[in-house]
Amino acid sequence: MNRILLLPIFALFSLTHCGKKDGVPEIVEKTTPEGLELRYTPAKATYSGNALVLIARDPNFVPSQLQQRKALHMLAKSYPDYEIRSVLRPQVTFIDSGSNFESVHCNLCGKEIPTAHWQEAMGRAYTSAFNDLSFQTVCCNQKGSLNDLDYRMPCGFAKYEIRLEDFDSSTNRNAEVIQELQQLLKQEIKLVWVHN
Ligand SMILES: [Zn+2]
Questions:
Q1: Residue 120 and residue 93 share a domain
Q2: Are 161 and 91 contained in the same domain?
Q3: How close is the Cα of 26 to the center of ligand 1, in Å?
Q4: How far is the CA of 185 from the centre of ligand 1 (A)?
Q5: Which domain of life is it from (predicted)?
Q6: Is 20 a member of any domain?
Q7: Does 118 lie in the same domain as 59?
């Protein structure tokens, strides 16, 4: 096969290696049919299925490519031992805490929401591709949002997510790093602890 034919095949993957310059960890950038994906994979990375997923409180938040790169670089520098991956999808998805999910409570009155009622609302929201997250509470009869409900443990909705594999919650710089991420993305950040 000649080289000209091979080129479009490589272009399909459009991988970009940012390189290890100035002590900046290597981030691999990939354009997928779903959107842009950035990945930092250190040799020490482990995978147990547990992860910390960082999302914006606003499900429709779309960072610029520059923000995505800066966010991954900052996190990879702060946490060099974890695999860190950011994904930007065209549609909002539900970020589930897996087996950490216990119950859903009304953020307006605090009462527990019956699972069947919540699932029905999730089904409706799903048919709108999670564009409409409106939720009518039965406990206190108010209009709310599925995004604002009190999930225990926290869950959320997002187009953009950053996943840190096997993240150790006791790392003492966490609050500082989240603060830095919030400033970088100009968004309030929500932490979803995923346990599978
Ligand atoms: Zn209520």
A1: no
A2: yes
A3: 47
A4: 32
A5: Bacteria
A6: no
A7: no
Q: Which of 102, 119, 132 is nearest to 193 (CA)?
A: 102
Burial of 115 (0-12, 13-18, 19+ CB in 10 A): exposed
Residue 36 contacts residue 65 (beta carbons within 8 Å): yes
pLDDT tens for each residue of the chain, 196 residues long: 444 444 444 444 444 444 455 555 689 999 988 788 999 999 989 999 899 999 999 999 999 999 999 999 999 999 999 999 999 999 999 999 999 999 999 999 999 999 999 999 999 999 999 999 999 999 999 999 999 999 999 999 999 999 999 998 887 789 999 999 999 999 999 999 999 8
Q: How far does the centroid of ligand 1 lie from the alpha carbon of residue 48, in Å?
A: 36
Query: How close are the terminal C-alpha atoms of the chain, in Å?
Result: 45
CA of 151 to the centre of ligand 1 (A): 13
CB contact at 8 A, 181 and 79 = no
Write down the residue that tokens 């290696």 correspond to. Answer: 17
